[in-house]
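A favour, since you know our structure tokens better than I do. It will help me judge whether the discrete encoding reads sensibly. The space below this message is yours for that.
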Amino acid sequence: MSGVAISRLHAAVGLGAASMLAVSGVVAMGAAHADQTYYVPASKTWTISGHGYGHGHGMSQYGAQGAALKGLTYTRIVKFYYPGTSWAKAKGKVRVLITADYTSDLQVRPRPGLRVRDLADGSSWLLPRGNGISSWRMLPAAGRTAVQYRNGSGWHRWTTPSGRKSFRSNGEVFAPGPVTMVMPSGALKAYRGTLRIARPSPGSAARDTINVVTMDTYVQGVVPYEMPTSWQQQALRAQSVAARTYAAWQRAQSPNRYYQICDTTACQVYGGVAAEQTSTNTAVQATAGRILTYGGKPAFTQFSASSGGWTSAGGVPYLPAQRDPYDGFAGNYVHDWSVEVSAAALERAYPAIGRLISARVTKRDGNGEWNGRVLTMVLEGTNGRAHITGDDFRWKLGLRSTWFSIAPTAIISRWRQLGAAGSLLGSPTTRELAVGRGAIRVFEGGRIYWSPKTGAREVRGRLLNVYRDRGGPESHLRWPVSGVLRAANGGYRTGFQGGRIYAKPGPGAHVVFGHILSRWGKADFASGWMGYPTTDVYAVDGGRRCKFQHATITWERATDTFTVRPTD
């Protein structure tokens, strides 16, 4: 929900382990800054650039690898990411909810030394082997727990040597080595420790499967899912400490609950024996039992895939916002990222706002480029607005983090280049609109037109009035190739793919194009002796004509010749 574990990037991108509680944790307060408004292009496709992956609290997993590559030991790595914590030892076991076993029974394969225990009084019995037995299972039975075995003729109730036909409470199975569980899909999965059938509450018809293991055994099944096993040993050791400490913290939150931690990204991904690898087991054993504490209690050691160069405040003293010099090494492909997304996803998520016009950042945390991670935003639409968090925006668009910036549209870039709201164009009055193969946006004092071939160009005043009267981009003028430019003697002009419009008080605003524009150009346009046009180019028999302040140009189509007559 709020972070990404490296292993999930390594395999199929997913959410990070101990990072999952950030949504319900304390949100870091950040410094306010000048609003950043990101306008929606006509295509509704934003190009978003960002830094890091995950919420950024605590340890950056890529940062741990970067630090290890620089020669830092795991003790220095974890102390950098969790400053102010102290070392301690985690003892005892942890109860892990096995979420994939959702059926009503707990089924295991026979093996030497397999035993069952009635948790009501601790009595245990060795389960027999042979006689065609292929599976054992425990399942709820009228408030008790029945034990059954399966052979070629089906399932049969098993009675203990002492004559007990069902357990008085929950039960568990265990053996000298791993116990192989049969998952609902039929897949086999081995776990160390004990496998327990437990009811969420007394008398409940539901039941869950719990794996009760030592803390280090548990961490051996976690680290390979949280960090690539080929990474530096010191990075794997830092991950072992963070994962173990997080489990100890989680256990301390629910000491008496029938389970204390789960096996998914909602807690930490845990895969049992199948997950274990030599490199990560070595890291776990090298840090055996070591955890971080603060105020004498296990620390909340959140971590995410990449800090992007700055960690973010996690609401406790040992999760500060600080510059991270280790995250930006060459192997971290999520330190910087860029992605194209559709802003239409926000319209679907917040239909009351209508068509989205802009996303305006109202607060960031103040750290790093763009003033840091986004904390709060306002979505402006045609029908209203929505106040959201940076995390809301991130999840709706599938971004890697809340530390991002959105590339302005070409139209907005040109508007800002001209001076934004302080320019002659003033503020936008419409959203960006698609026109043909380009787009336009209306402002208080004019319009900006954009096409892939011509870029973004502003047109305003009398030049705009004439252009619009002619039909805009759909006319023979097509798209503007310049903005509003000063011309000779106090006039203005704008160039288009199909001609030019000149304007000056007195002569007015007129369109000149084609052969006549070329001929006028030989006389230096408005700077020359002919002066400004006093008419548009218009058709005459056999050609075209345009009148200027001091001359008239006529073009004969048949002979491709010009007649230039000075004005009397």
